[in-house]
Amino acid sequence: MTKAIFPGSFDPITNGHVEVIEGASHMFEKLYVVIMTNTSKKYLFNEKERLELAKKVFENNEKVEVIARPAELTVEVAHELGAGAIVRGLRNTADFNYERDIAGINKTLDPNLNTVLLFTRPEDSFISSSMIKETVFFGGDVSTLVPKPVAAALEEKLRNRNNEKK
């Protein structure tokens, strides 16, 4: 069975992520979406919330399994799950340079583990979780840029934040 992992912080999961995950699920028999920790990011959703949102988004895709491994190296997660590839999404050349460097580190840790890079559609190439959070923070509507459950969760976070200010 050909397995792959798609690691990320997914805070929050966007339409670009969904597009890459759906595409990768057609390439592999099993795709694990792995909720991980990026120590340089400030999170809006905690690990449990990110896990539950991603599970909700992919609940109807039997080839996708969403799990959390917040304190592990990506290569170790791949070994644990028997995955032969790491899938990553690209929006632009900046992503390419960043992902190339990560793939290089991972290749150093395991020369047999390959990284597969998939491009998003041009209309999704500007979407980033950071921009989504920034837009929501200032009251903008991102409902066309994220899956419906994520839009609802963002709206709830915004409502709670606004209620705390009162």
From TrEMBL:
Molecular function GO labels: ATP binding; pantetheine-phosphate adenylyltransferase activity
EC supergroup of this enzyme: transferase
Site (Transition state stabilizer): H17
Annotated ATP binding sites: S9, F10, H17, G89, L90, R91, E99, D124, S125, F126, I127, S128, S129, S130
Cofactor(s) needed by this chain: Mg(2+)
Organism: Lactobacillus johnsonii N6.2
Keyword Flavoprotein recorded: no
Gene that encodes the chain: coaD
Subunit structure: Homohexamer.
Domain of life: Bacteria
Compartments in which it is found: Cytoplasm
Assigned keywords, A-Z: ATP-binding, Coenzyme A biosynthesis, Cytoplasm, Magnesium, Nucleotide-binding, Nucleotidyltransferase, Transferase
A GO cellular-component term linked to this record: cytoplasm
Name by which UniProt lists this protein: Phosphopantetheine adenylyltransferase
Protein family (similarity comment): Belongs to the bacterial CoaD family.
